[in-house]
Amino acid sequence: MAHLLVTGGAGFIGSNFVHHVLDHTDHRVTVLDALTYAGNRASLDGLPEDRFTFVHGDITDAELVDRLVADADAVVHYAAESHNDNSLDNPRPFLDTNIIGTYTLLEAARKHETRFHHISTDEVYGDLELDDPERFSESTPYNPSSPYSSTKAGSDLLVRAWVRSFGVQATISNCSNNYGPFQHVEKFIPRQITNVIRGIRPKLYGAGENVRDWIHADDHSSAVLTILDRGQIGETYLIGADGEKNNKDVVEQILTIMGQPADAYDHVTDRAGHDLRYAIDSTRLRTELGWQPQYQDFEAGLAATVDWYREHEAWWAPAKDATEAFYASKGQ
Ligand code: NAD
Ligand code: TDX
Description:
Elements: E1 3-7, H1 12-24, E2 28-33, E3 52-56, H2 62-70, E4 74-77, H3 84-89, H4 92-112, E5 115-121, H5 147-166, E6 170-175, E7 178-179, H6 188-198, E8 203-205, E9 211-213, E10 215-216, H7 217-230, E11 236-239, E12 244-246, H8 247-257, E13 266-268, H9 283-289, H10 298-311, H11 313-329
Parallel strand pairs: 1-2, 1-4, 2-3, 4-5, 5-6, 6-11, 7-10, 8-13
Antiparallel strand pairs: 9-12
Helix pairs in contact: 1-7, 2-4, 4-5, 6-8, 6-10
């Protein structure tokens, strides 16, 4: 039994991880989360009180972070500003949380010699042509496009430097696009599902040919637990489930699952600097650490996600109008 400090545990992937850990291990979990617009305390309702503690606070608060890291066996660092469109509108919070926040945690992990796992994204590698036979691997050079992905790339490099210069016991994972329950309505899949529920037509950026490599959030969680258990200190592991789909196909699948005509969506203004394609080669994680994804059927996972949003309107409704007003102001 170990005590994990999970930063950003009230967000989408962090909350899925906390549920996964409490369901599948006997670890104790403390969540540190600032409850920004993206954090939702309700995503952590009903967890066992003897194994779960919630701390409302900021990862840039060095004194608080020091106290919490001192008390943990390992830190799993999910907290971030995570949305590309927000980073194009106002980059500053991305620097504060993704760079200074990661630095603050690393300093505490260094001081207390605490095991550290850093959660990152495939977006640090930039993008691929649609017909490129190569996928991203651990040796792909960094080439981020957006303020979001450049601050994630910066945070990854800080972790590598703290491993090499100070001997911090850290691992890094870079994962592809996640879907599943508890994802904020600003993101592509929940935005379109909740649009259809509200009678709004889905909005596709540009022609919709951009490809994302989808993985269920629960598979991301099992991969992170595997790396925590068996990952080699100082190493990076790419997490992906061979789920490449273009955005147009995903919107059409959502409409079909929800009983609407497959062409009942609008094309809207494209994202500035929009990455064309992400694709992950997760061979290393599978062969060296023996991890396998469980959700191999994207359509079934998507249908379950549609059901979740239909059944949890009280969870997402408070954020919906403000999110759509933001997009409307950008012509999106
Ligand atoms: P999210 O935006 O849903 O959640 C982020 C959480 O961090 C929120 O609960 C928020 O309140 C918290 N937070 C933000 N700033 C904070 C601060 N300064 N101090 C404390 N807490 C703070 O994000 P997500 O989609 O769950 O992503 C989680 C992590 O996974 C991020 O590091 C992201 O880069 C990475 N990632 C995401 C995806 C994806 O598809 N969403 C894919 C690969 C990697
Ligand atoms: O309304 C939309 N219409 C649309 O066509 C939205 C919100 C998005 N899109 C497109 C843009 C992308 O090509 O859908 C794709 C997915 O968009 P997002 O959900 O914003 O995700 P993305 O930009 O790919 O980044 C996500 O995956 C990697 C997460 O937000 C990041 O945190 C993670 O690092």
